[in-house]
Amino acid sequence: MKPLIFIGLLFVAHFSSAQEIAKSQKGSTTQFINKTEVTIKYSRPVARGRELYGGIVSWGKIWCPGADSATTMSVSTNVTINGKELKAGTYSLWAEPNPKEWIFIFSTVHPIFHTRYPGSSKDALRLKITPREGEHMETMNYYFPVVEGKKAEMVLHWGKVVVPFDIEAP
User: Are 131 and 148 in contact (CB under 8 A)?
Assistant: First the structure.
């Protein structure tokens, strides 16, 4: 009888550890702009009182804005983002944050883990973006605060930093 109790306890311990809740929950958002489908898939890190930019996210170093597997963005047709063309497809997202200007990178490499930027030779698009300040956002979020006709604004928002993208889908 004792061996069966031991085996039962091992099973419960294994099952409990396998069911741990991830600290960065998976999230996604999909928006249609005109007839173009835009989908962002990412894991959503939580601030938890930490200093974000200049803290856990270093200034001037390429970082994946998300957690776990690299954040991806898919567009079903060619679009322009901040006036520059991005072809239909799926891209991993990377950023080099700085206090006054971010470089945002769309890489052709996906899927990929969030700590291994694939290098500039795989970049499909690089943008310089001026971030703005917003209300504190505890959990990282990508969303579309404005969608009108063929144009939309998408933002990356975490902490008090908001990084805007103007997307046009002709």
Answer: no
Continuous segment of H or E residues that includes residue 96: strand 89-96
> Which tokens is 115 given?
């700590």
Q: Which conformational region is residue 110 in: left (phi greater than 0), alpha (psi within -120 to 50 degrees), or beta? A: beta
Three-class secondary structure of residue 122 per DSSP: helix
Q: How far is Cα 145 from Cα 155, in angstroms, rounded to an integer?
A: 8
Does the structure show a pLDDT above 90 at 3? no
Q: In this structure, what token pair is assigned to residue 126?
A: 């690089």
CA dist., res. 10 & res. 84, Å (int): 56
Residue that has been written with the tokens 């604004």 in this structure: 153
Query: How many C-beta atoms lie closer than 10 Å to residue 51's C-beta?
Result: 10
Q: What is the pLDDT of residues 48-97, one digit of tens each?
A: 999 999 999 999 999 999 988 899 999 999 999 999 999 999 999 999 99
Task: Note the pTM of the prediction, 2 decimals.
Answer: 0.85
DSSP 76: S
